[in-house]
TrEMBL record:
Species, as recorded: Clostridium beijerinckii (Clostridium MP)
Keywords recorded for this protein, A-Z: ATP-binding, Hydrolase, Nucleotide-binding
Official protein name in the record: SF3 helicase domain-containing protein
Start and end residues of each stretch annotated as Disordered: 1-33
SF3 helicase domain: residues covered: 261-420
PROSITE patterns on file: SF3_HELICASE_1 (PS51206)
Pfam families the record matches: D5_N, DUF5906
GO molecular function per UniProt: ATP binding; hydrolase activity
Biased composition (Basic residues): 1-15
Superkingdom of origin: Bacteria
Residue ranges, compositional bias (Basic and acidic residues): 23-33
Lineage of the organism: Bacteria, Bacillati, Bacillota, Clostridia, Eubacteriales
UniProt xrefs under NCBIfam families: primase_Cterm
Length: 545
């Protein structure tokens, strides 16, 4: 790193692109906008073609930026950390020139020396890129190109690196908590919720940024606010032979019984889960027999997405705002082994899988906030949850948002590989590359998941079981030319059907919904029928089986 006190223009560099680092000038801190990073460095990039992705290079002029009354730029071969270390040394040298008899970082309180909290906060912010979003702190991870959540423990570890040795014996636990809380409310580091991964066509992984829209890969940068990083590296090529011989492919064949449609569907679900896209308006239930691989495939998906990017709230708890808050900023929510408890409120679930609907959540002891959910919802169960709703409620909107993934092949214990998960984690880069093919296919198909006959079959059976009125009509009534059925007869038979399905009473409102459902199903309106000695309400051209 070098310093240049002159304001002379730098020569232009070809085949270079700018990188962004946030630096603040104490004199101008009121003007500082954390959402507009200042360009102070340049790094070299190269153009490369890879499979369906190509590496992106921007030809830009080098930029200069003044801060701390000096001009800084990153020289060729120098890293961001080198620059920050150099600035830290520069700041320390200036600080050491001050009167050592009276430290800037100490105050006297109630007869004892204590560290000066605000002074240390300002000192840290000169050396670390930290932002505050939704009452939480995030620190830049320059190696992986995203802002990582900074909890109080990690904040304390970072703080200790900056506290002078002679001050460490003065610090108490309260000081760390106080600095953490006060750091959250620093005006110049506040970021609004609409900055949360605004470009959902970018997937950040360990070694690059994958652009789904342009089929390109980019080097990590902080030109946008990203808060997630996939726990895998992008590999440029994945041949059919490599994938066919992988442990993951053998596992897929085992859990799907080599059903190609089912494997295709699972691939698209993996791709959907590694992105922050929520346009498909779907959630997923992995349903089937015990020891069929449901838990293992969710475990490996959690591992690829990254545990810090996952939450684990059961389907029935998502109606509670304090549990719903756990989904904020996550890419994936999974839950193994759903309880037998039924579903009573479906409105929240429909909002969570919508691209535009906001949900209201509240962390414990905090104020409520609203956000658009971007996490994919996947649940595993041996028994599909019962829907506890009135018969007159239309559940079709929920069923349109649900995809059931059947797991029907139970693996005997003596055939189970106890080291399977460890073997699959070793293939995380291969699985990530395979998942990208799934999200690309989903994008090309306008966010419609590929047809899967066995999945559709199980969803149809589930709808029949949970939709009492719909199943009554489908099982008992048919269109028949010149046939007829009186409304009184339909009501009597439906009450017997409901009682056989553990519903003892049918309300007038539910009877009205039954009538409307028959009209919609057959396209025939109820009317007065004159048949024999009777003149009463009924349906033409409909007969009981």
């Amino acid at each position: 790193m070098r310093k240049n006190k002159n304001n002379k223009k730098e020569k232009k560099h070809s085949n270079y692109r700018t990188i962004d680092i946030i630096k603040t000038n104490k004199k101008d801190e009121k003007k500082t906008d954390i959402t507009q990073p200042r360009v102070i460095g340049i790094i070299k990039t190269e153009d490369k073609e890879t499979n369906n992705f190509k590496e992106n290079s921007d030809n830009q002029n080098s930029s200069k930026e003044k801060y701390l009354d000096d001009e800084i730029r990153i020289d060729e071969g120098e890293t961001i950390q080198d620059t920050l270390n150099g600035e830290r040394n520069y700041f320390n040298s200036k600080h050491n020139q001050k009167d050592n008899k009276k430290s800037l970082f100490l105050i006297k309180s109630k007869g004892r020396k204590r560290i000066a909290i605000q002074e240390y906060i300002e000192y840290i912010l000169k050396h670390e890129v930290i932002i505050s979003l939704n009452e939480e702190l995030y620190k830049d991870d320059s190696d992986r190109g995203f802002y990582k959540k900074l909890n109080q423990h990690d904040f304390g570890v970072m703080l200790y690196q900056y506290i002078e040795e002679e001050h460490k014996r003065l610090i108490v636990d309260y000081d760390i908590g106080a600095m953490y809380r006060i750091m959250k409310i620093q005006p110049k580091i506040q970021v609004s919720l609409d900055k949360l991964d605004s470009n959902n066509m970018l997937i950040n992984c360990e070694n690059c940024l994958v652009d789904l829209e342009r089929n390109e890969i980019h080097k990590h940068s902080f030109n946008a606010f990203r808060f997630n990083c996939i726990n895998a590296k992008f590999i440029k090529e994945l041949t059919k032979e490599e994938f066919k011989s992988s442990c993951f492919n053998k596992f897929l064949n085992s859990i799907t019984n080599k059903d190609k449609e089912l494997k295709k569907l699972i691939q698209e679900i993996f791709g959907y889960s590694i992105s922050s896209i929520n346009k498909a308006k779907k959630f997923f239930i992995f349903y089937g027999v015990p020891n069929s691989g449901k838990s293992t495939i969710l475990d490996i998906l959690n591992y690829i997405v990254g545990e810090e990017n996952c939450s684990h709230i059961q389907l029935q708890k998502l109606v509670d705002d304090k549990y719903c808050a756990e989904l904020f900023g996550k890419l994936l929510n999974t839950y193994n082994e759903l309880p037998d408890e039924g579903l009573s409120d479906l409105g929240q679930i429909k909002a969570l899988v919508s691209e535009n609907d906001k949900v209201t959540a509240r962390r414990l002891y905090n104020a409520p906030f609203s956000f658009k959910n971007k996490s994919t919802l996947i649940f595993a169960t041996n028994n599909l949850p019962e829907i506890k709703m009135n018969l007159c409620k239309d559940n079709s909107a929920l069923f349109k948002r649900l995809i059931i993934v059947p797991f029907l092949n139970s693996i005997p214990e003596n055939e189970q590989d106890k080291q399977l998960f460890e073997k699959l984690t070793e293939e995380k880069n291969l699985i990530f590359r395979w998942s990208l093919e799934g999200i690309n296919r989903l994008l090309n198909n306008d966010f419609i998941f590929s047809d899967c006959k066995i999945s559709s079959q199980y969803l149809k059976e589930y709808i029949t079981e949970e939709d009492l009125i719909g199943s009554f009509i489908n099982e008992n009534m048919r269109y028949k030319e010149n046939g007829y059925t009186f409304w009184d007869e339909i009501k009597v038979k439906f009450k017997l059907y409901a009682k056989a399905n553990e519903k003892s009473l049918v309300s007038a409102k539910e009877e009205k919904f039954l009538k409307k459902s028959i009209e919609n199903n057959f396209g025939i309106k109820v009317r007065k029928l004159h048949r024999g000695n009777y003149n009463k309400l009924g349906f033409d051209n409909i007969k009981f089986i």
